Task: inverse folding
């Protein structure tokens, strides 16, 4: 099928919203774990720095964490012809083995995470998937 790519994806210095219940609200991407000069999109893992937290959290501002991108601001068209453009980039904090740190995920999660079976745990925790 024909896929039309739109705009830029997640790259170093991109600020992403965290949609799990770890207490972290925003992170800034340091690098995308795909190779040198890589651009990340939904389903890719990034290394990020914590920019803002709320309440009492084990993770503090300035900590370096790993995160999985669950939606990107500019998505590409799907093979069935549908589009999903959420308007903001969001991620979920994960540990080194790829398991989510938080116990709840609030907000929309893209169904393109189904391409990798390691992301099934994140999809089951999510309230909605589009």
Result:
């Amino acid at each position: 099928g024909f896929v039309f790519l739109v705009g830029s994806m997640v790259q170093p210095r991109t600020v992403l919203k965290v949609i799990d219940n770890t207490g972290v609200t925003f992170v800034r991407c340091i690098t995308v774990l795909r190779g040198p000069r890589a651009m990340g999109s939904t389903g890719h893992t990034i290394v990020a720095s914590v920019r803002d937290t709320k309440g009492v959290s084990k993770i503090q501002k300035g900590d370096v964490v790993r995160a999985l991108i669950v939606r990107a601001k500019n998505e590409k068209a799907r093979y069935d012809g549908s589009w999903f453009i959420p308007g903001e980039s969001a991620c979920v904090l994960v540990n080194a083995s790829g398991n989510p740190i938080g116990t709840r995920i609030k907000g929309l999660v893209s169904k393109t995470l189904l391409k990798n079976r390691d992301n099934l745990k994140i999809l089951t925790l999510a309230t909605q998937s589009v």
Observations:
- DSSP finds one helix and seven strands in the chain.
